[in-house]
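Final report, section 2: Outcomes. Of the targets proposed, V-type proton ATPase subunit a is the one most frequently requested by collaborating groups, and we therefore present its record in full.
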Amino acid sequence: MGDMFRSEQMALCQMFIQPEAAYTSVSELGETGCVQFRDLNCTVNVFQRKFVTEVRRCDELERKIRYIETEIKKDGIALPDIQDDIPRAPNPREIIDLEAHLEKTETEMIELAQNEVNMKSNYLELTELRKVLENTQGFFSDQEVLNLDTSNRGGAGGDDAVAQHRGRLGFVAGVINRERVFGFERMLWRISRGNVFLKRSDLDEPLNDPATGHPIFKTVFVAFFQGEQLKNRIKKVCTGFHASLYPCPSSHIEREEMVKNVRTRLEDLKLVLSQTEDHRSRVLATVSKNLPSWSIMVKKMKAIYHTLNLFNMDVTKKCLIGECWVPTKDLHVVQKALSDGSAAVGSTIPSFLNVIDTHEQPPTFNRTNKFTRGFQNLIDAYGIASYRECNPALYTCITFPFLFAVMFGDLGHGLILLLFGAWMVLSENKLSRIKGGGEIWNIFFGGRYIILLMGLFSCYTGIIYNDIFSKSMNLFGTNWVNNYNTSTVLSNKHLQMSPNISAQGVYPLGLDPIWQLADNKIIFLNSFKMKLSIIIGVLHMIFGVCMSVFNFVHFKRYSSILLEFVPQILFLMLLFGYMCFMMFFKWFKYNGFTSNQPETPGCAPSVLIMFINMMLFKNTPPLAGCKEYMFESQPELQKAFVVIGLLCIPWMLLGKPLYIKMTRSRQVAHVKHNGELTGNMELAEGETPLPTGSTGNESAGGAHGHDDEPMSEIYIHQAIHTIEYVLSTISHTASYLRLWALSLAHAQLSEVLWNMVLSMGLKMPPYTGAIGLFIIFGAWCLFTLAILVMMEGLSAFLHTLRLHWVEFMSKFYEGLGYAFQPFSFKAIIDGEEEE
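The predicted structure is given below as tokens.
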């Protein structure tokens, strides 16, 4: 089978690159994104590798770019979008100019920022001084002026001793944070024992912190006191509470003159600040045009040197050796990238790429596109496929939305999902540019094609169920005819319509809309959907078991077809496949148009009771005139099926272990030659190197081999596998009944929401009903979207995911591989943007 049905074939390659061409060659490989490198320096400390200096240099450049980007965002300057023009990795010589430019820009920004903080601090101090001088006008009266020392300037200057001797009051004025005022006032009271008179006034407008720019609320205060000792205590308290003290003349004229001078200085400082801001904005605007390109270039350069640290230097120090996993389809792409890298630097010695054999399990790589990527992510969330085993993502593209639609069958709700998915698909180029949309939005957008198909299939099942917002569509009329007169219908509440009289053929598509009015609607739909879910489930499991055959054939495990697949498919088909057959046979045989009483609908036996009697070898007496079985040889056939199904259990339990034991006894011990002791021995001149790995597919299939396991573990493993399969066949069949249960719940919730909400508005009087219906319709739309579309849709999605992970994939899927993680610049840049 092709690579579309399983992971791609991988090759372990060895690269030989000249040191001068190593940077450009790895850069070309990063652009292609199809090589996963292996670390050949596992024993070497990361700080002792060859290119650690270059990595640190890139870290320093990233730090400078982050600092400049922070300053740009602080000023609200928008960075250009360069998703359509992503630059390539820079030349090592070009990075010197970039480093010098970033160094110059960072130094200039730091100087501007420091000068701005200093000027804003001066501006804040002058603003506080102006506020102090303006708010203290009311603190001084004519009597206070006569009693104050005119030489006092905020408690400083003048002969304080003489002033205190004369009995004049001293004072200090300043500004303090508003939240510290009460503690400050309490402390002044305590240290002075009530001998300090404090006046304060809250500033109406907040001031801006010069460092952070956050608003701060402050209060102007004036503390009057007497005595030099008390003055020193007050200053210490102000220092402890981070209060700013300012000179404040006691003379009204001097205060007015000082206010004028301060306002003049503030105007000058504001002009200087404005010019500084303009210069800063011009510098940042110039840098912002190239900053995204610089950031990507530095990231690519750092990734290249990180990758080069995985290489090993040969003994002569003239060649770099690296190992990598490459898809075989991309070998020519890698070889071209190596040649382009060598040609870019004018290297005369070409780089070599050798494919080597190995016993290691290669990584799993499933090539996807934007349509299949979402479905592949669902499979990978369960477990990465083992190398080259069947990939269920291809079939999940159809089975997943179909099983979802069986549970979510409503034309109206499916149309909502379809429109939402179609909007994301048609606008994906514009929506993909949205950054910072959140994790939930990224999940929805990543699964846009899943949502589109789920909505499309839900519309289909909604047509089959004939259900749109809990109502039916009368597209083709009805095939049921009323043969009773009006009086008979009105007087008989339990009147029934016989199919052989009232039914006229088969309805063209889906369910007949007349079932919307029938009293036995739920009984009929329960029977229909229950049988439908069992049939779909058994077919789904049979398909899963058959998928294991392709794995057995690919890995050349032909014995497993007879020892595992055959008993498994027989056990499933003879028991539950037979039960599905009886459902179809019952539908075809029993009808209301026959005159033979045993074939009338009243004599139709219960398939469930018949299946239980089949497993227990019991009989149920039929009704009078009816037959217990549907056909003559049914009891003998059922006994044969049960016996064969029971024989399949020891077949699965003992077949494979006995086969392994027989094949081991026939094997001849293999004696290794001296040349096979180690793969690192140096070959003599003229010798031909032997392959170090197996070329067969047996060892490439993940955890398929049992060569090294003892027989006791093989018996235990097979016993667990057999018990799990037998029990899971029964439980998984019952698990598919969730298709019926959720479909019934969704239909009933939709009907309840219609009857309890929207129908209330439709029954209101004409005039008030118009307004009421408008409000009620809005509530009905809200509940429909929130409950029936989002909550019920999420529930159906999770149940569908469980049916695929447990019931379907457990039949053939191992999921023991590890993902192929290529060195790709695109993946690195996208990953950092998501973080």
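The longest helix spans residues 766-808.
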